[in-house]
Amino acid sequence: MAAKSASAPKVAPLSDRVVVKPSEETEQMRGGLYIPDTAKEKPQQGEVVAVGPGRTEDGKRVAMEVKVGDKILYGKYSGTEVTLDNVQMLILRESDILAVVG
Predict the structure, then answer these.
(1) Strand locations in the chain, DSSP E?
(2) CB atoms within 10 A of CB 43
């Protein structure tokens, strides 16, 4: 069964997928110029809000290495962006996660 967070929308990822809430970036001002949302880099850090049961390998279930609440780094173009209950989320495979942060 997938683990869920109370503050996150109800979602249960399948297999080795992870649901991540991207970190909020603060508005940036460089040299007094406003940088529009379309020009900002997408955040590459987020918090895991749900995890799947793990992948199946040789008929056996391989447990996930990340858990709900972990802060992670992921690839810039990884995963699929979805909006659940007006909250922007990212669904990605565990293999797209680069590192767990402190």
Answers:
(1) 3-4, 17-22, 29-30, 33-34, 45-51, 55-57, 60-62, 71-74, 80-84, 87-93, 97-101
(2) 16
- The amino acid that residue 95 corresponds to is S
User: Does the pTM of the predicted model rise above 0.85?
Assistant: no
pLDDT tens, residue by residue, 24-36: 765 555 566 666 6
Q: Tens of pLDDT along 56-91?
A: 999 999 999 999 999 999 988 889 999 988 889 999
* Res 5: pLDDT: 44
CATH of 3-23+35-101, one of 2.70.70.10, 2.40.30.170, 3.40.50.300, 2.30.33.40: 2.30.33.40
Each domain of the chain, given as residue ranges in start order, spans: 3-23+35-101
The type of residue at 69 is G
Reading the block at residue 30, the tokens are 């460089």
